[in-house]
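Help needed: design a sequence for this.
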């Protein structure tokens, strides 16, 4: 069978772009396929301070720098929503593409908060929407690194930020917690759970919690992520996360996976790039054996 590409990388986040860079430099005919802007969730991270080589860089800027490498290498990037991956064929809403090997690097999507779908002033991205609430009062639900980073970004723009933490403490890096504690316009409500929401004309006006009611102009959600793997029917998964071996290979012989969609202990930018490197090198090895 003649394939359109030696390898198709599904996903243009940091893992997908890393895999593509390694493949292209190894003279593999590679395509990157995604339905969103290059960078994925990187584009929603206000600041990155733990990525080697950069003391401090915004997520979108880091994404762009990696994408520049992709462009300089002449790697083709196409857009389309992947509907199915089966028998070496990737079906999108626009076309069908065949590949000898496939690397899945789709990443994760933000977990939604119940009963907020129709509300206009609810956001899952501070970088995207913070300026809509300049000098206003907002709340953010969550207590992890991502929630704290979002709160710090919001605090530089908004009049006041209320962190709604289900836990009794913030589960974030100490350096981030110290920054939060030094912000006069950040208020933390611990052991706090949203019970009901008040809205008018699909605009959220008040959140009612077990610790009291808070009038706000906007609500940001940072309660974790879940993998985008619903359409992958033939792959072994654990709670939606794809199971891979040490070579990043799935139970389907020609499919590899890396980054935030695989089952693992640590979800970081650096682990995603490492896994992408492993996947790409092993794909190249298999292609070389077959050629």
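Sure. Designed sequence:
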């Amino acid at each position: 069978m003649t394939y359109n590409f030696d390898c198709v990388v599904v996903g243009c986040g940091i893992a997908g772009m890393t895999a593509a860079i390694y493949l292209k430099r190894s003279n593999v005919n590679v395509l990157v396929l995604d339905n969103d802007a290059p960078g994925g969730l990187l584009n929603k991270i206000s600041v990155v301070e733990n990525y080697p080589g950069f003391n401090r860089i915004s997520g979108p800027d880091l994404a762009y720098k990696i994408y520049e490498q992709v462009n300089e290498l002449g790697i083709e990037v196409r857009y389309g929503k992947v509907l199915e991956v089966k028998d070496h064929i990737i079906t999108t809403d626009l076309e069908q593409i065949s590949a000898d090997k496939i690397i899945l690097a789709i990443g994760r999507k933000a977990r939604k908060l119940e009963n907020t779908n129709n509300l206009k002033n609810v956001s899952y991205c501070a970088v995207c929407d913070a300026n809509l609430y300049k000098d206003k009062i907002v709340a953010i639900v969550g207590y992890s690194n991502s929630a704290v980073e979002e709160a710090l970004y919001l605090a530089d723009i908004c009049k006041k930020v209320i962190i709604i933490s289900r836990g009794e403490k913030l589960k974030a890096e100490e350096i981030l917690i110290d920054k939060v504690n030094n912000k006069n316009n950040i208020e933390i409500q611990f052991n706090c759970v949203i019970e009901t929401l008040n809205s008018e004309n699909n605009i959220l006006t008040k959140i009612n919690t077990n610790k009291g009611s808070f009038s706000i102009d906007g609500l940001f959600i940072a309660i974790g992520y879940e993998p985008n793997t619903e359409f992958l029917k033939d792959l072994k998964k654990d709670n939606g996360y794809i199971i891979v071996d040490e070579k990043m290979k799935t139970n389907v012989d020609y499919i590899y996976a890396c980054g935030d969609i695989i089952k693992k202990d640590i979800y970081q930018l650096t682990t995603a790039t490492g896994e992408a490197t492993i996947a790409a090198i092993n794909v190249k090895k298999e292609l070389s054996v077959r050629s």
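The CA atoms of residues 39 and 65 lie 10 Å apart.
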